[in-house]
């Protein structure tokens, strides 16, 4: 490449000087450069620089705030700065000017951004950022990606070797049969988040790191999780994170002391005047026009620039930049009311061929690969390049990259949106459909890389069969990264596409499978309200096809749903139906599900012996390699079965077997390194210890379980673990800490629409209220727990609520003796019927203590003697000393 050519490509390519070279036909040697690679130019303003930017005005205060944040971050006190503003006010320009100023000398700068079409593509900005960090070109092959990632990471720090698989997985360069690919999706997600964070934090120890991520209003959920995770670790890192977004975006960082928000508004009149001075010049005859433009645009920089360009294109203004003059009188000048209207008018004035080309580019997206545009434009290359040069000159498009592949980008997101919306619906549809064909041809051997883009264009192109197939593949790809929100969106899109196809058997089978996939994604998200309708639809479709296997799966999931929503009778009825289907098909997997769901339902009903029968079937049949199988459950089926088995055994006071099963469960979950199953194991081990009163064992296990819930965003089990941990804290005297934890658990369960165990959660809150002397609150919650459990036929939980009502009545001053006695007696009768020996012991203790306070010593001794025997026989040593003390007082 000659120096003259480099002048045009500068900023896009990396070169190595080769020195002067003699060229035939030229009298003097020419400086020649070898192209060694492409720069990571991605931001619109980076590529706009070559065309000449307008004067940067009116943002001195904002630049000063960014400078202060930079100084703090340089000193190891990481900062987050969010620039918020409406479209066109100059958010990106502010970042550009700051990042390219002398202030950032010595910083490693990594830039990325979200795209309006990117929400369905998990980690899209993160992938872009990692490519820039590792200097990976967009079309690099798998071998090159692996080499560059490995080299970058190991050069940084060899102890980060374990992060390499996570990075390679994001860049789709990891072998499918590798250990990382076989990990549970939730564990993969957590390790991915940790890998990105560790890399960036370690890099910041070598050199200060400036991260720029734009357009968060279009961010995907997984990139959001990366930012959330990174921001938690910023306070001690030399990292400045700059983000920008429109006002509608929401995040949870506002309470961080190291977060600051800069609201960027339209330019004030004096700054807008300065900008127009640079654009138009100092001709005094333009003063009235400038005033009109400032008034109509309200100082929005993009609106001002586009309005000026409109006036130039319509020859209202003639001359050159910085020296224009009016060619028409002011009253004849029309300024459209919005920047969108200005852009639409400018697009309409383009020659037909150029307008058509711009619209084709808009259908492709904000980033426009030349090869793809050429394929759908169907024009000779020379004519195409000429039209593109005109669109660049008019500042609709910019070159985003030259090497290894030419690509364009729209000047602004609004330009892209207006160009796209200017197309008639049918033309838009046809172009999307054509893009699918072109992508399939261009990437015939790499379709998996393009599946998100293929799904997007196939759906909008109404190529329904392909839209359904590609959307489902995109959903599976998202789920593999634990990006369940994106996975659910892809599944819904696939279902919408299938609805347009003829009702052939194959189509209906796909419709069932998609609904069952969607159920799993919604379950992981805790969105229970959407699950029932989809499962009912799947059930009806399976019945219409007489497809017993699919009907069994749908009915099994319905059983699970009924149980979660507190409809235990329907859960048992549905579970028996699943068991019958499974037996008829001799389907082992379906039998496992049926036994498990029936065990859960009977546990909720208080039928602990019956529940144990079903759960033990799974414990006994799931041995060897089957210990690690899930059978469609979120965790390992062998672990799930033991969790409920342990709880049933603990309710019956059979603690020796319960503890043994809990330890088995913990070993299985630890060996599998499966977070969801580990949470279950923590609940099992912690619950047995809590029931027995072994608080030194219960508290750390339950704290670990709650930490896992938070680390892996497993919201489903957070309320249950928080409730158990709160009980343990309250029993250990940490009542003030326990109450907020309980209240948060109840609120979280309510927000999820989670009915299952809600009465138990409410009971858990009531008890520490009673311990804290807040008897009115305790009584109200205990009544609520009693009513909820009675309504849902949760007899075991109803018995616990009755006992709590007795406790509250007995603590009042003076004690409500008659009410307390009645509640205790009711709880004891139900506990006797259900075999709940630990609850029975607590009731005898409470009633005996009440009788002693009332002076009814003979009755007190009878109740307390029974309590002592029960506590001693079950080795519930935490409560035994109190029972013995009460008995001694009643006997003295």
Structural features, described:
This protein is of the alpha/beta class and 892 residues long. Among the domains are: 3-38, no CATH class; 59-263, Rossmann fold, CATH 3.40.50; 269-345, no CATH class; 424-501; 504-592, Alpha Horseshoe (Serine Threonine Protein Phosphatase 5, Tetratricopeptide repeat), CATH 1.25.40. Helices cover 64% and strands 8% of the residues. It contains 40 helices and 12 strands. The model is unreliable at 40-44 (pLDDT under 50).
List keywords for this structure.
Rossmann fold, 40 helices, 892 residues, elongated, alpha/beta, single chain, five-stranded parallel sheet
Question: Ranges with pLDDT <50 over ≥5 residues?
Answer: 40-44
Distance between the termini: 104 Å
- Number of alpha- plus pi-helical segments: 40
Shape: elongated
CATH architecture of the domain at 59-263: 3-Layer(aba) Sandwich
- Beta content: 5-15%
Find the count of extended strands (DSSP E, 2+ residues). 12
Q: Give the % helix.
A: 55-70%
Task: Supply the CATH class of the domain at 59-263.
Answer: Alpha Beta
Q: What value does the average pLDDT take?
A: 87
CATH topology of the domain at 59-263: Rossmann fold
- Radius of gyration, in Å, reads 34 Å
Characterize the largest beta sheet: strand count, sense, and whether it forms a barrel: 5 strands, parallel
Structural class: alpha/beta
The order of strands across the largest sheet is 4-5-6-3-7
């Amino acid at each position: 490449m000659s120096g003259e050519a480099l002048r045009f490509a500068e900023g896009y390519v990396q070169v190595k000087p080769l020195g002067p070279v003699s060229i035939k036909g030229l009298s003097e040697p020419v400086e020649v450069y070898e192209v060694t690679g492409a720069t990571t130019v991605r931001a619109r303003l980076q590529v706009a620089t070559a065309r000449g930017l307008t004067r940067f005005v009116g943002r001195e205060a904002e630049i000063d705030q960014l400078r202060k944040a930079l100084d703090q971050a340089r000193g190891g006190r990481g900062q987050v700065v969010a620039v918020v503003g409406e479209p066109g006010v100059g958010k990106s320009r502010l970042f550009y000017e700051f990042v390219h100023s002398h202030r950032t000398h010595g910083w490693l700068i990594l830039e990325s951004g979200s795209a309006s079409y990117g929400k369905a593509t998990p980690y899209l900005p993160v992938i872009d950022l990692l490519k820039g960090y590792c200097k990976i070109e967009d079309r690099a092959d798998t071998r090159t990606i692996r080499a560059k990632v490995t080299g970058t990471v190991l050069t940084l720090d060899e102890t980060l070797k374990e992060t390499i698989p996570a990075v390679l997985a994001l860049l789709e360069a990891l072998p499918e049969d590798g250990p990382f690919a076989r990990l549970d999706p939730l564990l993969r997600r957590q390790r991915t988040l940790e890998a990105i964070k560790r890399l960036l934090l370690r890099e910041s120890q070598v050199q200060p790191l400036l991260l720029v991520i734009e357009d968060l209003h279009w961010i995907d959920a997984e990139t959001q999780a990366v930012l959330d995770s990174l921001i938690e670790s910023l306070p001690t890192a030399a990292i400045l994170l700059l983000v920008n977004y429109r006002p509608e975006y929401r995040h949870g960082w506002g309470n961080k002391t190291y977060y600051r928000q800069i609201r960027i508004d339209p330019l004030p009149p004096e700054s807008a005047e300065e900008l127009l001075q640079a654009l138009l010049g100092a001709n005094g005859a333009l003063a009235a026009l400038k005033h009109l433009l400032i008034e109509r645009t309200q100082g929005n920089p993009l609106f001002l620039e586009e309005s000026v360009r409109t006036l130039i294109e319509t020859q209202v203004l003639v001359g050159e930049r910085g020296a224009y003059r009016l060619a028409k009188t002011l009253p004849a000048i029309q300024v459209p009311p919005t920047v969108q209207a200005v852009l639409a008018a400018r697009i309409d004035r383009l020659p037909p061929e150029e307008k058509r080309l711009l619209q084709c580019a808009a259908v492709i997206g904000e980033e426009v690969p030349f090869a793809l545009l050429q394929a759908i434009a169907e024009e000779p290359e020379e004519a195409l390049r000429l039209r593109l040069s005109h669109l660049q000159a008019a500042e609709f498009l910019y070159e985003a990259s030259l090497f290894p592949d030419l690509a364009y980008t729209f000047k602004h997101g609004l330009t892209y949106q207006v160009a796209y919306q200017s197309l008639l619906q049918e033309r838009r549809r046809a172009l999307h459909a054509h893009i699918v064909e072109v992508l399939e041809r261009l990437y015939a051997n790499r379709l998996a890389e393009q599946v998100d883009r293929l799904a997007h264009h196939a759906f909008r192109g109404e190529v329904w069969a392909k839209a359904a197939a590609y959307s489902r593949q995109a959903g599976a790809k998202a789920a593999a990264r634990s990006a369940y929100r994106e996975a659910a969106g892809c599944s819904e899109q696939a279902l919408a596409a299938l609805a347009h196809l003829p009702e052939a058997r194959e189509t209906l089978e796909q419709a069932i499978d998609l609904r069952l996939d969607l159920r799993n994604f919604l379950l992981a998200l805790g969105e229970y309200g959407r699950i029932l309708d989809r499962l009912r639809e799947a059930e009806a479709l399976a019945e219409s096809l007489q497809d017993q296997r699919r009907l069994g799966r749908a009915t099994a999931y319905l059983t699970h749903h009924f149980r979660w929503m507190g409809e235990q009778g329907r859960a048992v009825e549905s579970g028996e139906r699943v068991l019958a289907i499974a037996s008829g098909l001799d389907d082992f997997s379906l039998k496992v599900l049926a036994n498990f769901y029936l065990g859960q339902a009977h546990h909720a009903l208080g039928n602990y012996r019956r529940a144990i029968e079903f759960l033990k079937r799974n414990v006994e049949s799931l041995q060897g390699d089957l210990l690690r199988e899930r059978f469609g459950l979120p965790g390992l089926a062998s672990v799930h079965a033991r969790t409920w088995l342990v709880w049933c055994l603990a309710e019956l006071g059979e603690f020796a077997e319960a503890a043994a099963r809990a330890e088995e469960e913990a070993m299985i979950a630890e060996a599998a390194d499966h977070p969801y199953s580990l949470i279950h194991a923590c609940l099992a081990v912690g619950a047995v210890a809590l029931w027995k009163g072994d608080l030194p064992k219960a508290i750390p296990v339950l704290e670990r379980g709650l930490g896992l819930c938070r680390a892996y965003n497993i919201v489903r089990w957070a309320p249950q673990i928080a409730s158990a941990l709160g009980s343990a804290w309250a029993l250990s005297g940490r009542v003030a800490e326990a109450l907020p934890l309980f209240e948060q658990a109840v609120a979280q369960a309510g927000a999820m629409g989670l009915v299952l165990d809600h009465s138990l959660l409410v009971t858990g809150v009531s008890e520490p209220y009673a311990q804290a002397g807040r008897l009115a609150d305790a009584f109200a919650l205990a009544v609520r727990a009693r009513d909820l459990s009675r309504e849902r036929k949760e007899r075991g939980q109803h018995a616990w609520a009755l006992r709590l009502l007795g406790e509250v009545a007995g603590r009042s001053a003076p004690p409500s003796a008659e009410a307390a006695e009645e509640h205790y007696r009711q709880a004891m009768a139900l506990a006797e019927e259900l075999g709940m020996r630990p609850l029975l012991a607590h009731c005898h203790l409470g009633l005996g203590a009440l009788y002693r306070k009332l002076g009814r010593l003979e009755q007190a001794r009878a109740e307390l003697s029974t309590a002592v025997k029960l506590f001693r026989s079950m080795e519930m040593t935490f409560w035994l000393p109190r029972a013995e003390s009460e008995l001694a007082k009643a006997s003295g």
